[in-house]
Specification:
Number of helices: 8
Number of strands: 101
Radius of gyration: 80 Å
Strand content: 35-45%
Largest sheet: 5 strands, mixed
Distance between the termini: 15 Å
Length: 1490
């Protein structure tokens, strides 16, 4: 190839014109804004886009004229956005929909604009309260009306809509519970119906407070009054109400003492309400009129509780109605006790028997006194009545029960009786008492053993007594005296002798203790008798004592001695102790008597005193709301409930005679000036309530009537409310009126004091605290702490990692201040896949894969919305910068310029564009590329990371048809990352190998008579080339020396090389013929070779032998004569035969067919000569018929016969020969030969002339100058296309609508431009058209450097990022083949930097449309002088093209900016030399190149 494919970079700076108007993505934008939205709140609007750039892009936004909104325009870099700002508060009730037009205007000249319709739907907030048709409704209703009866229908309206305008009626529950029991209201219709029993007697009129509330949030309400007058019917009997002043009446009450207050009430009105009263039964009581239907029940006779303690007073009340109705009331009057009965003992003397030695604390007696009085007066206490005999050390008495308890153990032997008095005293005032004498008798117990009196001692000592021997029976021996401290039976002693058995000498008196003899002494009796006397008492158990006496028998009485002993007597004496005890008893008795006298004196003084000292009562108020009533030493507390305003208080002094007592009435407060505090009241009011609204019902009650009742109300000073006082016939009420709009955010609670003042003199008042709770409405949008947040995050951060925490606040409260965060979904789908936000906390966290290589920064639009109705929201931007990490290896992108590389490509031919991209930034994105394996290719750097894969050595497809070029790209990151890419380079075939036959000569053997169409031979030629170049076509090579018409005999299949017969061959006619078969490939130019084919027609045995003259064939008789004298071997005749066949089929043999035994003749089998075998004999016949059989040697053998009669003659003179002569055929030059000769000469001459003309044309095109191409033009059109025109040819270069700039890469044609310019539409090897352009001007030879136009040089350094799309299209005009062509797009002019590489990895969608047709879109530009190159031209080194960008420096050109293409003279000369060399080599085959 003379012109290998090379790569050149062309920077085409596409200057924008304002040919595109701004365009909104949506023509209609709907916004929903609450009418409560504050002024200054902003709302984001959709942005407009403009395909133009720079100043021709969107410049600003405008808003159609309106009264509520303005526009704020934000400019950030190349983007311009707008926000809608509320300037005036919205009011849905006045205008529910606001329609405006948003206009986007670009900065072009003239400016273009695009519009979008804004439809603002004003969302309703609950800012209008319901309004009743009347503030006061009046109606009448008969008492006892049936349930469900409609009383009245109230009606209210609300200007709001939806739920805010839906009204629900209700009866206010506070302070009208009785109304709610009787009336009800339908919540939807406002019909008030009877729910309970209406009773005139209970309520003569009803004041129903109705509330109408909407269903907004917060709800707003209005109130009205409904006055229902009840019409009375006489259906109630009088009612008797008894107020007992005393729960009991003292039995000593004086006549006229008030017992109870009786009031009569007849709920009926008029005469039906006039009542008379009487006491039906006989009781010591009477009724006395106080005032109208108020009576006092008085004591009318003596009372004695002990006789009658309870009176049932039957009171009958009868009204004056017709018929009269009456009622009865039984009043139970209890007679209270007066201490007029002292306690009484049942007997005046009580004897108490007490066993001695009883345990201490034993109850020895319970004394009981009864008192006819009751309660305290009958409560008796027991004491010992003080006397000289004080029993307090011995016994004690229980003052409550009268139990007498021992304080010591009594000994009968020491004290056998004592006496004391018990006094019974009641608890009355004064106390009364009585006493009883108690004699205590200590009963003896057998607790003392008998005691032996002197002179005898007790057991243990021996007493002696003597008796004379001569003593007679009954002789007094001794007397044992014993005593027992006990008494009674316990002291009754008995004496007994305890003597040995059989001793019957002595006896003792059981009661006297005298020991006497029973008989006289005998000599046998012992001289000494030991007696033991047992003294025992009569107690249980019996106690005893013993004494031993030895009775000695003496001879005479003079020896008798007595042993009686004397015991001294004990004298009574008055000791000092007794004196002290006496003094103490007297002192205590005196003190007791004095105390008793003093107590009686005091009691008497209090009883005798008059009631007049109670004349100075005092009632004092306390902070807790109680009143205390005090009169001297008496105090009564009167406590009122918290809701009591006034009360009737009747205060009586203690239970003493009310002779001069004072009844103090507080009804109307004659002596009081107190101001009563009323209960607190709370009202909830929405802050959106409009001024003028009324709230609450304020009503105070006053038991006074007329001018002394409630007269007016006063409100404490405040900025928001006033008081509206309503005066009715019987009542005065008030309502709060809102004067100034509330703002909860400024003040959420208001405390107002309402004072109710009566008309008395002096006036009295009561106050109530009204607490106004300002209900929040959603009138405040959330506010972010910053409108722009900035954060950094590393790429590949884990999901869930927090990026930043947003914070927004809302001045509202409750749900209106409950903020939910979200990411705006519109226009940031990629953001929603990568980031998420916690709706509660506002924390933005990673939700997807953050890749620095995809997005180096994110602009997140966040929204904070409250939960109000309607919700309000705020927006902010979050700029998230992604910090790069080296996590991406280089990416190798290969854009093949040529689908295949021709094997004859020159060194430096560009095969593919290799771009290396590392998505990382900084050094991590700096990449170097190299080829790893050994290939005849190399990488040439174009610009930065853009390379060209070029041929670096010879290629031979037949040796290596495919190369896998391994390219490695390594970045400069630490550690360095690398990647490899394999570029498969297919070496395309060039037709440099002719077809080759395996042998130069081919012999073909064809059997004669073979069928027509039989393949006699298949010739095959092999072409080392491939595809079309290896596609061989077979044909017969015409030769003038061959006179045979091959076309009528054989044919050859051009594809398969099959040689087919067109006729059946006859070996006898044509034994052989020769022709040449030419094998031609399909390359350009085609190459061929030929082979000589010799066709040999093989003979078949299809012809019988033919007998030659002079002999005829079988069927006629030939005669030959031989002399009789012929010797053996005599030549008779020679049969000549021929066979049209050849070879063995034509090899004839001769035979004689003669009768058996005829051996005279013989014939040469090969010569056909008939000779004699012997001499003639006489026996031989004169005529010999011979049949000669001539046979060929074929299969099957064919034969012919000839009959010869050999006549034997006598002499040779008679022999005659029969040879025949055939005339010769002479050659001649016929007319056909002449015509053929003329035709051959004519064709040869025409061929030679055509060849000479073609060569001349080629030379003419080669010598021609390219200067005739000096006026090409590229014109831009409004649709974004470029038209390239050269004389009568036009080519359109079209870019997609969104392309701003493009780099256009122009390749020279890869074929010689000897006589024309080859314009490649496919970018490949094969061309479909060679266009000759007419111009004689020659441009002067430029240097090899780029030259920029003046306009581009003035602008400084350009930069554009180039991208290639392999699938773009170069389209010709209608009917022209569309070829693939690489296209490019670039960035905008505003980007500075150095010139970008010519092509890059493919993204955009630009396409070239080359249209063939007459004329360009405009007149041709002004021609340059021959050889001149305009200063605005780009001259591409190594290319025959000059690209010139022309632009009118003064402004707009009358024609569009255009680019012209010329040819470089220097390049043309080089190509011309290469072409001439190739012409000599190809020997005139240039026609095939076309």
């Amino acid at each position: 190839m003379n012109n290998p494919l090379k790569l050149y970079r062309i920077d085409v700076d596409i200057l924008d014109v304002n040919d595109n108007a701004p365009l909104f993505t949506t023509k209609l934008q709907n916004l929903y804004i609450a009418e409560s939205t504050l002024q200054g709140v902003k709302f984001a609007l959709s942005e407009a886009s403009d395909l133009d750039v720079g100043r021709n892009g969107v410049s600003t936004y405008k808003l159609s004229q309106n009264t509520h909104f303005s526009l704020v325009v934000h400019k950030a870099g190349d983007s311009v956005s707008a926000e809608l700002v509320i300037q005036k508060a919205l009011d849905r009730e006045k205008q529910s929909v606001v329609t405006m037009t948003l206009i986007a205007v670009d900065g072009g000249n003239p400016a273009k604009s695009g519009t979008s319709q804004l439809v603002i739907t004003v969302l309703d907030v609950n800012d209008n309260m319901p309004i009743f048709s009347e503030t006061l409704y009046k109606t009448k209703m008969t008492e006892n009306a049936p349930l469900g009866t409609i009383v009245i229908a109230v009606n209210a309206t609300d200007l709001d809509e939806g739920l805010n305008g839906e009204i629900v009626y209700s009866l206010r529950s506070k302070d009208q519970d009785h109304v709610l029991d009787i009336f009800e209201i339908e919540s939807q219709t406002g019909l008030i119906k009877v729910k309970g029993n209406i009773d005139f007697e209970e309520k003569k009129a009803f004041e129903i407070r109705v509330e109408a509330s909407d269903e907004g949030q917060p709800p707003m309400s209005a109130h009205c009054k409904v006055l229902v007058e009840v019409v009375d019917v006489n259906d109630n009997a009088p009612e008797i109400t008894v107020t007992s002043i005393h729960t009991t009446v003292k039995e000593d009450a004086n006549l006229g003492t008030v017992v109870a207050l009786v009031s009569l009430l007849d709920k009926d009105g008029g005469k039906n309400g006039e009542v008379k009263i009487r006491i039906k039964n006989e009781v010591p009581l009477k009724l006395e009129t106080n005032y109208r239907n108020y009576y006092s029940l008085l004591v009318d006779g003596p009372l004695d509780r002990e006789s009658v303690s309870n009176y049932n007073v039957t009171i009958v009340a009868t009204d004056s109605g017709t018929p009269p109705l009456s009622s009865t009331r039984v009043l139970s009057i209890l007679i209270s006790d007066v201490n007029d009965n002292p306690p009484l003992f049942p007997e005046p003397l009580i004897n108490v028997y007490l066993k001695e030695n009883s345990p201490v604390g034993e109850i020895i007696k319970t004394v009981a006194a009864s008192d006819a009085d009751v309660n305290q007066n009958s409560q008796v206490s027991y004491t010992f009545l003080k006397s000289n005999n004080n029993p307090s050390t011995m016994v004690n008495i229980n003052s409550e029960t009268g139990d007498i308890v021992t304080l010591q153990s009594f000994d009968h032997e020491e004290l056998n009786t004592f006496q004391f008095k018990v006094q019974a005293t009641d608890s009355g005032v004064p106390p009364l008492s009585s006493n009883v004498t108690v004699n205590v008798l200590v009963l003896d117990e057998n607790d003392n053993s008998p005691t032996i009196l002197l002179p005898y001692s007790e057991h243990g000592s021996v007493n002696s007594e003597s008796i004379p021997y001569s003593a007679e029976a009954g002789y007094f021996v001794a007397k044992i005296r014993a005593v027992d401290a006990d008494s009674g039976y316990n002291a009754l002693l008995s004496y007994h002798l305890s003597a040995p058995k059989g001793n019957n000498l002595f006896r003792i008196g059981t009661s006297t203790g005298e020991i006497r003899t029973k008989r006289r002494m005998s000599d046998n009796d012992l001289k000494t008798h030991a007696l033991v006397v047992l003294v025992s008492d009569n107690g249980e158990p019996s106690l005893s004592a013993t004494v031993s006496i030895d009775v000695v028998v003496v001879e005479s009485t003079a020896d008798i001695q007595t042993q009686f002993r004397h015991v001294p007597l004990k004298e009574d004496s008055f000791s000092d102790l007794n004196l002290y005890l006496l003094i103490a008893i007297v002192s205590v008795s005196v003190i007791f008597l004095l105390s008793l006298v003093s107590l009686i004196a005091v009691k008497c003084h209090r009883t005798d005193g008059s009631f007049s000292r109670y004349s100075a009562p005092m009632i004092t108020t306390h902070p807790d709301g109680s009143w205390s009533y005090s009169k001297s030493t008496q105090q009564y507390d009167v406590c009122f409930s918290s809701d009591t305003l006034k009360s009737d208080v009747v205060v009586f002094p203690a239970q003493f005679p009310q002779v001069d007592g004072e009844l103090i009435s507080i009804n109307g407060g004659d002596t009081f000036t107190r101001t009563q505090t009323l209960p607190n009241k709370s009202i909830a009011i929405a802050e959106s309530t409009a001024p003028g609204g009324t709230f609450g019902f304020i009503g105070a009650s006053d038991l006074d009537v007329g001018k002394n009742s409630v007269s007016t109300y006063k409100l404490s000073p405040n900025d928001y409310f006033s008081l509206e006082v309503h005066k009715g016939e019987e009542s005065v009420s008030a309502q709060l009126v809102l004067q100034k709009a509330l703002d909860r955010e400024k003040q959420h609670i208001l405390r107002l004091i309402v004072t109710a003042v009566d008309g008395g003199n002096p006036p009295r008042s009561a106050t109530s605290l009204i607490i106004i709770n300002v209900l929040d409405i959603n009138d405040n949008a959330p506010v972010f702490s910053s409108s722009l947040y900035k954060a950094q995050i590393s790429e590949n951060s884990e999901k869930g990692q927090t990026v930043i925490v947003l914070n927004a606040t809302d001045a509202d409260e409750g749900a209106n201040a409950d903020i939910e965060y979200s990411l705006r979904s519109k226009g940031q789908d990629n953001i929603l896949h990568l980031f998420q936000i916690d709706s509660k906390t506002g924390a933005i966290f990673v939700g997807g894969n953050i890749d620095y290589e995809e997005h180096r920064a994110f602009e997140i639009h966040a929204e904070a919305s409250d939960k109000g109705q309607p919700p309000m929201s705020a927006h902010c931007k979050v700029l998230v910068e992604v910090v790069d990490i080296n996590d991406n290896g280089p990416e190798i992108s290969v854009t093949s310029l040529l689908s295949t590389v021709k094997e004859d490509s020159a060194v430096g031919t560009a095969i593919a564009l290799v771009s290396v991209l590392d998505k990382d930034g900084g050094k991590n994105g700096v990449v170097k590329a190299a080829i790893l394996n050994e290939t005849p290719f190399q990488l040439d750097t174009n610009y930065k990371n853009y390379y060209s894969l070029v041929v670096a050595g010879p290629l031979d497809r037949e040796t290596m048809a495919e190369y896998n070029v391994v390219i490695i790209a390594t970045d400069e990151g630490i550690p360095a990352l690398s990647s490899t890419g394999i570029v498969t380079v297919h070496v395309s075939d060039v037709n440099d190998n002719p077809p080759h036959f395996s042998e130069p000569l081919v012999n073909v053997y064809v059997e004669e008579n073979s069928p027509v169409g039989a393949i006699i031979k298949t010739v095959t030629a092999v072409d080392a080339d491939s595809n079309e170049n290896g596609h061989v076509i077979y044909s017969f090579l015409q030769s003038s020396s061959n006179s045979l018409r091959l076309s009528s005999m054989i044919n050859i299949d051009s594809e398969t090389g099959d040689i087919v017969t067109l006729q059946s061959f006859n070996h006898e006619e044509l034994k052989t013929f020769q022709f040449k078969v030419q094998a031609t490939d399909s390359g350009v130019p085609p190459l061929s070779s030929n082979v000589t084919v010799n066709v040999l027609v093989l003979d078949e045995n299809d012809n019988s032998p033919t007998i030659l003259l002079p002999y005829s064939e079988h069927g006629s008789v030939n005669i030959e004569s031989i002399p009789y004298s012929a010797e053996a071997g005599y030549f008779v005749a020679k049969i000549r035969a021929v066979d049209a066949d050849s070879g063995y089929n034509a090899l004839l043999s001769y035979h004689l067919s003669e009768p058996k035994g005829n051996n005279l003749f013989r014939i040469g089998t090969s010569t056909g000569e008939i000779r004699t075998k012997r001499r003639m004999s006489d026996n031989d016949l004169k005529t010999h018929p011979l049949v000669v059989l001539v046979s060929d040697n074929g299969e099957p053998s064919l034969s012919a016969t000839v009959s010869i009669d050999v006549v034997v003659v006598e002499s040779t003179a008679d022999i005659q020969t029969q040879f025949r002569h055939v005339p010769l055929k002479e050659d001649s030059f016929s007319d056909l030969n002449l015509y053929l000769l003329i035709a051959i000469v004519s064709v040869s001459v025409i061929f030679l002339l055509s060849l000479v003309i073609l060569i001349a044309v080629k030379c003419h095109r080669t010598d021609g100058s390219f200067s005739r191409y000096s006026a090409p033009m590229i014109t831009t059109h409004p649709d974004g296309s470029w038209s390239y025109s050269k004389s009568t040819q036009q080519y359109d270069v079209c870019f997609s609508s969104d392309t701003l700039k493009s780099d256009v890469v122009v390749y020279p044609a890869p074929y010689p431009q000897v006589d024309g310019e080859l314009i490649s539409i496919s970018g490949g090897d094969t061309f479909t058209r060679t266009q000759t352009l007419h111009n004689k001007d020659k441009p002067k030879g430029p240097s090899g450097d780029w030259r920029y136009s003046a306009s581009l040089r003035a602008g400084g350094v350009m930069q554009s990022s180039v991208h290639m799309e392999e699938s773009s299209v170069m389209q010709g005009a209608q009917g022209v083949l569309v070829q693939n062509w690489p296209t490019a797009s670039s960035a905008a002019d505003a980007e500075g930097g150095e010139v970008s590489p010519p092509m890059g990895a493919g993204v955009d969608s630009n396409s070239w449309h080359f249209r063939y047709g007459p004329g360009g879109p405009g007149a041709p530009p002004q021609h340059l002088k021959p050889g001149d190159v305009p200063p605005e031209a780009f001259i591409i080194p190594g290319s025959p093209a000059i690209i010139s960008i022309r632009q009118n420096q003064g402004g707009e050109d009358d024609k569009s900016d255009f680019i012209t293409f010329g040819k470089k003279e220097e390049a043309k000369k080089k190509k011309k030399k290469k072409k001439e060399k190739k012409d000599k080599k190809d020997k005139g085959k240039d026609d095939g190149d076309e």
